[in-house]
# Entry
Amino acid sequence: MTDLAIEACGLIRDFGLKRAVDGVDLAVSRGEIYGFLGPNGAGKSTTVRLLCTLLTPTGGSARVAGHDVASQANEVRIRIGLALQEAALDEKQSGREILELQARLYGLEASTRHERVDRAIELADIGDAIDDWVRTYSGGMKRRLDVAASLIHDPEVLFLDEPTTGLDPVSRVRVWEEVRRLNELHGVTVFLTTQYLEEADALAHRVGIIDQGRIIEEGTPADLKRAIGADVIVVELEDELELAAHTVRALSRVDDVTIGSRGLTISTSNGAALVAEIAIALNEIGVPSVSLTVRTPSLDDVFLRATGHRLLNASS
# Structure
């Protein structure tokens, strides 16, 4: 048995003339939480649908749980769990009915089915509401039920596509806690797509950043942030961004300068020592800063350096 739960080589998916996934390579180990990070339209959900056999690759290949997604699709399907961005729940059924139906669809025998449904009810953690119609549930309750249903057959790999989009902060944290528990206690491999930077940082053992259909950065969150530098200085400016960037790049201890829409992001090994030099240098060329702040690097800084733009839900 391979140590890889998910592997892809040159994976491509075209929709007409548009290439949504452009040569994606993946190697996700068994028992790993892999965060797939990128903005809307980057190719995250299309990649998930390819790996889950919901779409056929235009080119390249992929294997999930040891089976080819194109030629062994049925073998893949019985070994994975999938919770898409929009919970696929019949709102005229109760939570219990949905879980029981899911168990039957996977062909579980009666004795096993009852045990798995009881376990899923505990996992969903929605109390007596499990016997109420799903249409009465909050977004967080629907999401937890959907995740519980996707796990009823003990999948080897769980795909979560934007699992906390639209949830309030409390519900989001509860989903995070459940993902951690499933991984730590049951060894479930989790492939998590998200546009929330703090979600990837909090949950993922490794992160892949995708933009315009291509993976442009990959590594542990700590390693990716460490590559930026010890500190990040954010300089807010009203104009003359190119001139300011040219001036700052000439200073010692500056590792990298990225121009954003409202100023500069500077990586350095010593932000405290550099911030005063930057303020003086900008003032000397007649480009005073609106503000200067020093902080530790974030995944948003990694994304900015790799793509030239920030991720829209960075602070959500």
Notes: The chain has a mean pLDDT of 90.
